[in-house]
Amino acid sequence: xxxxxxxxxxxxxxxxxxxxxxxDAVGLICPMPVLxxxxxxxxxxxxxxxxxxxxDPAALIDVRHFCAEAGHEYLGANDLEGGVTAYFIRRG
Amino acid sequence: xxxxxxxxxxxxxxxQDFSSGKSPEDITACIGGAARTSGAFVLTNHGxxxxxxxxxxxxxxxxxxxxxxxxxPAVIDSGFLTRGWCAGSKTAGGDSGESFTIGRALGxxxxxxxxxxxxDTGWPEIDGFHEAVLDMYKEMSALSRVVxxxxxxxxALPNSFFASHxxxxxxxxxxxxxxxxxxxxxxxxxxxxxxxALSLIVSEGDTGVEVQTLSGxxxxxxxxxxxxxxxxxxxxxxxxxxxYVSSPMRVPQQNMRHHAVVFALAPNTDSIVxxxxxxxxxxxxxxxxxxxxxQTAGEFAAGASAAE
Lengths: 92, 308
Fold this sequence. Notes:
The complex is a heterodimer of chains A (92) and B (308).
Chain A: E1 21-25, H1 32-42, E2 49-54, H2 59-70, E3 73-79, E4 85-90
Parallel strand pairs in A: 1-2
Antiparallel strand pairs in A: 2-4, 3-4
Chain B: E1 12-14, H1 16-19, H2 24-37, E2 40-44, H3 50-65, E3 84-86, E4 98-103, H4 129-154, E5 172-178, E6 187-192, E7 198-203, E8 210-212, E9 218-220, E10 228-232, H5 234-239, E11 249-252, E12 258-265, E13 272-273, E14 287-288, H6 289-307
Parallel strand pairs in B: 1-2
Antiparallel strand pairs in B: 2-10, 3-4, 4-5, 5-12, 6-11, 7-10, 7-12, 8-9, 8-11, 13-14
Helix pairs in contact in B: 2-4, 3-4
């Protein structure tokens, strides 16, 4: 959050969320993070949670659309250091 | 299916068809067509939660209803360098409403002067305002990048061409209150163009925006609940070597309070804006985005410091 002078990151309940699998898509440009997530989720049990980390800000829009289309549940996102965001997806 | 038709100058586009991968080619063709005629289209199913739009629009009204002392120090409108509250601002378009603008701190660059930022002193004390406005910035920033991605095939560009131009962007988000007046009288926002890459505009009801098409007609942007009006800006027109139109827009004055939130996607300061390959004989010389966007802003800023 260093880009925002004087901004304090709001506490987010997702900070304490647990997950079953994670995929690091940091550095990948959209739509790659979502394509990787699709692959991961296919190998997971329904109800299991994927934590996807990505640095492309456009993932915020793509992940929601992907979940709506593929029938997964978008649980939310959590900003990490260095412009990285963690997205939580429950396998549908 | 997207609305494609010769008679619809400002199409309404279901973004789910692009982002889900269902029919990205159709969407690209549709927004490419719109960019060549009216330079505008409306997105539905864009993926930004309604709650985010509702919260920021409600808080926009709360902010402008505050007393002047509570809105933070009044600043001069200086285009992409503006941060904080502008009262009766004279923007590039000559508007005379009020605005509140945020953007990233632009330090560390020779060409972009350090800006005050909507930091510790610039945020008003309204519960949830800070978070709602930042959330909106993030959402609009994300959506605008996805839209830029959709233009790439239409401009015969490799995938992700634009991504590198928006890694440390000069983008700004502005909350606007238009002046109240007689409909048909003075303009709420006078005729102006958007000089960034893209502008995304939302309003609590009808945006009231009218866009001038290539034929010279003024066309009202269609109103869709929770829709987002997208306008191509000067940077995108320049990249496309004027294949795309950064069309003039205006907002006729209304006789009731009218607010809007506008996100202007602007490239990195050192991004080179030059006509792209395969767009014909270049009409413009390459220029850095900072030089391009801050030219007018610099004049405003110089005026501001002279007045202090």
